Amino acid sequence: MEYRNVPTICTYCGTGCGLLLEVLDGQVVGTYPDYAHPVSEGHLCIKGWNAGAFVHHPDRLTKPLFRKGNDFVEVSWDEALERVAGELKRIRDQYGPDAIGLFGSAKATNEANYLMQKLARAVIGTNNIDHCARLCHAPSVAGLAMTFGSGAMTNSIPELENSRCILVTGSNTTEGHPIIGARIMRAKERGATLIVVDPRDIQLARFADFHLRQRPGTDVAWINGMIHVILREGLENKEFIATRTENFDALWEVVKEYPPERVEQITGIPADQLAAAARAYARAESAAIVYAMGITQHTTGTDNVVSLANLAMVTGQIGRPSTGVNPLRGQNNVQGACDVGALPNVYPGYQSVTDEKVRQKFLEAWGAAPPARAGFTVTEMVDLAGVGAIRALYIMGENPLLSDPNIHHAREALERIEFLVVQDIFLSETAQFAHVVLPAASFAETSGTFTATDRRVQLVRQAIPPIGESREDWQIICEIARRLGTPAGPYGKFDYAGTAEIMDEIAALTPIYGGISHRRLEELGFLQWPCRTPDDPGTPILHTEQFTRGLGRFQPVHYRDPAELTDKEYPFILTTGRVMFHWHTGTMTRRSPKLHKEVPEGYVEINPLDAERLQIGKSERIRLVSRRGAVETKAWITRRVAPGVVFMPFHFAEAAANVLTNAALDPVAKIPEYKVCAVRIEKITEVERPEKLVAARAGAS
User: Fold this and answer.
1) Same domain, 95 and 167
2) How many DSSP H helices and E strands does the chain contain?
3) What order of strands is seen across the sheet that includes strand 392-396?
4) What region does 528 belong to: left with phi over 0, alpha with psi -120 to 50, or beta?
5) How far apart are CA 252 and CA 59, in angstroms?
6) pTM of the predicted model as reported, rounded to 2 decimal places
7) Pairing between strand 630-637 and 621-625?
8) C-beta of residue 165 within 8 angstroms of C-beta of residue 290
9) Residue 675, in any domain of the structure
10) Is the dihedral of CA 206, 211, 215, 219 positive or negative?
11) Where in the sequence is the domain holding 340, given as residue range(s)?
12) What is the number of structural domains in the chain?
């Protein structure tokens, strides 16, 4: 009998908690918190305590699969890899490199994502590489780069406990990032002022000094309103504005049009409450902004982010401990996947693909590089697959048939595609449409690094060998690349002794990771980028002396309505989000018995006044209908939502919220508008004609 505990990093949210996987005779049998970890400090949320529960689930993919008709048959790895490489080569040669798209994964390691984008760029010859950051925090990357020069969390998680004021918006932190939520609560206990701006009565709101309940989709208006109050009352940091920023006059020209009284008409936030919250934020010795996808998942997502950056700069609440603009990244390695280049417009380290000098650098390093033009995003690639412009997709660890908006449209596109290969640990909704399925190893079976939301790079350690015939992501990518033919540059090979060697290559080509190696991470526990040299201790706080771009640039924006408004036919606003016990598309948490038991099915939150008017009873099954489709689920009658607003979690395939959501995109970050769409609510009678049910599920009205 062999028993050991293997330290690693949690596979769920971007907090980057440390945990120990309990291994007995080659099987993961439990999970414990790492008491020495600097962020989680011996704590885990309910998902973390159950992080290993899905690893040995009987649904695990253990052998490569080929589609035959409506079924799958098991094949050897050689057969699978030869077919994948052969089809990709055929399509590249016949239609060109840009007929192929690749999806990296926020669940996979930095090393695997680096190789995925290298496969796209150096072997296939396309910048069509993206991942689910497009669906969560692409506006953070774009908006913070525009204003600060760096699209990442400015401060470190532990600092939040010492903030004197915390503004939380678009983040149900105690459910989405519970360990960070606990730090916010400790700051509150120490006397911090807590401002929560959220349309729902989330747990944090009940402890807040100010709960500003805005109408979904009106964030630019209330942020401009806060800045208006600060400038009108002389609460701005004049010295910081004069010495550290530019374009201030343009900001005032815009925000002077947003007095609190006008903002109240747009947002529903009482003018006096907005003004009081603005004063509290501006006057605090240290104030931090914390936000998540409730800010970014809008057609105005980038506008929302730059508005928050404007608020931080006008008060000088940035570049110091316990301040800053702090996006909470959703998945365990969404930050890292962005950092190492799994984006269509940048090489690793956010080096622009349109910069010919950067392109030349990678051409010399790899021996090949794609043209100097940005590739397509995940949503664009799915759209193009539907019209035949994208002929092949290689998807690693993503599940667009639950995560994409307007799922009916995404399904139609993947049904039409010429060749689809999916690399995953379970036969996800997307994998069921694949021509080839490649069985990947889980986080417990792989080594490498994850980068947490506060730019904290940490080691992931292999606890057990890959289950069955599954393989680590990086190994699969290397096998495909070698079959396609690798370039001859000094870093062109796809032949590595292990993931430490891949990280050495990342460091050589990525300035912000230049001082990061597995050896240093073993010694130090973590490093926060930018970490540029082998003796660089890393950077806990960004923009301390100057912004990454030099001067911070105010980017004033006007309020714009959401892409879809309510009307008589669709009178309710639907917004979506997470619950504490599940994660993303549920492929892992719904296979974890304790988590599944807590929330076994989907639901919709409805205000009691709306439920009474529609004669909907507790837990009654109802139908939600949007302009794109319909779903049936049960009603949860609660004051957590305001009248006229309904909320659905998006984890449940049988009640998929994204059947309803709007695929309208932010023009800059190309993120869909998940947080606002118009729906109606229908009671389900005991007997309905089958054709009515079919029509309701299928289509647009």
Assistant:
1) no
2) 24, 30
3) 71-74, 65-68, 436-439, 419-424, 392-396, 100-103, 129-130
4) beta
5) 57
6) 0.94
7) antiparallel
8) no
9) yes
10) negative
11) 65-133+332-511
12) 4
